[in-house]
Design a protein that fits this description.
The chain has a single domain, classed as Transcription Regulator spoIIAA (2-Layer Sandwich). The protein has four helices and five strands; from the N terminus they run αββαβαβαβ. Strand 2, helix 2 and strand 3 form a beta-alpha-beta unit. The chain starts with 9 loop residues before the first helix and ends with a strand.
Length: 119
């Protein structure tokens, strides 16, 4: 049996794990923002900036795909609540398929019922 040892330092592993991948694409009237990884203080501004850019378009639905998100912190919760509040008058934001980890944090924080979640 051959076992290959990781050559990354612990700090490099933490940075790699804390990364977030974002895809943003429009298909007709639906703009999908796909997120994979962790949303936290380190990258929440990037997510917020992209959400605000999408909100300025004429897309009828803004679909935020949370299926690949493994962790959110209070910064991420704040940005999701803010996006929901900004989109409430047009009822266009939908948080799709939150992972069990994300859903758990939203319930613990007491905000799951305040957000437009699609499960």
């Amino acid at each position: 049996m051959h076992v290959e040892l990781a050559t990354e330092s612990r700090a490099e592993q933490i940075v790699r794990l804390a990364q977030l991948a974002m895809t943003s694409e429009r298909d007709g009237d639906i703009h999908t923002l796909g997120l994979t990884g962790e949303i936290d203080l380190a990258n929440a501004k990037d997510v917020d900036r992209e959400l605000r850019r999408i909100e300025e378009t004429d897309a009828e639905v803004i679909l935020v795909d949370l299926a690949g998100v493994s962790f959110i912190d209070s910064t991420a919760i704040k940005l999701l609540i803010g996006a929901a509040a900004r989109s409430q008058s047009r009822n266009r934001l939908l948080l799709d398929s939150p992972s069990p980890a994300v859903l758990r944090v939203l319930h613990i924080a007491g905000v799951a019922d305040l957000l437009p979640l699609a499960r």
